């Protein structure tokens, strides 16, 4: 089994609200604070089953206030809206980076559907 890439550098660019991650396989990505917030791996967002996931609304202006290392396998992101319960493992960050376009489009579609219902 091949190990998933791990971050060698993580930097938050506050002005752009972007988290820049460099992985050990020379992959580099930029993920917005909003994207990371709406795809938080926490049970509060994802539920305990995909059917329990909670659509995150109004997170356009959210910022990352702190990044706390968790062992050698994850970071905990502290967001300006008070959310701080998701542990972003290296595998999950790489998955988010690898599937960014699909995930972001899916989120935008769900938001649109939510507001069309109102």
From TrEMBL:
Keywords: Iron, Metal-binding. Residues 10-94 form the Gamma-butyrobetaine hydroxylase-like N-terminal domain. It comes from the Bacteria. GO terms for molecular function: metal ion binding. InterPro entries: GBBH-like_N (IPR010376), GBBH-like_N_sf (IPR038492). It holds the Pfam family GBBH-like_N. This is Gamma-butyrobetaine hydroxylase-like N-terminal domain-containing protein. It comes from Methylophilales bacterium MBRS-H7.
């Amino acid at each position: 089994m091949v190990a998933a890439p791990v971050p060698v550098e993580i930097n938050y660019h506050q002005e752009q609200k972007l988290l820049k991650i460099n992985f050990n396989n020379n992959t580099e990505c930029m993920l917005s604070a909003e994207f990371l917030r709406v795809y938080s791996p926490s049970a509060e967002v994802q539920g305990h089953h995909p059917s329990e996931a909670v659509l995150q609304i109004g997170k356009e202006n959210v910022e990352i206030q702190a990044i706390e290392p968790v062992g050698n396998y994850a970071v905990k992101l502290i967001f300006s809206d008070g959310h701080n319960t998701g542990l972003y493992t290296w595998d999950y960050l790489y998955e988010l980076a690898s599937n960014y376009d699909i995930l972001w489009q899916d989120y935008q579609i769900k938001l649109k559907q939510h507001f069309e219902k109102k």
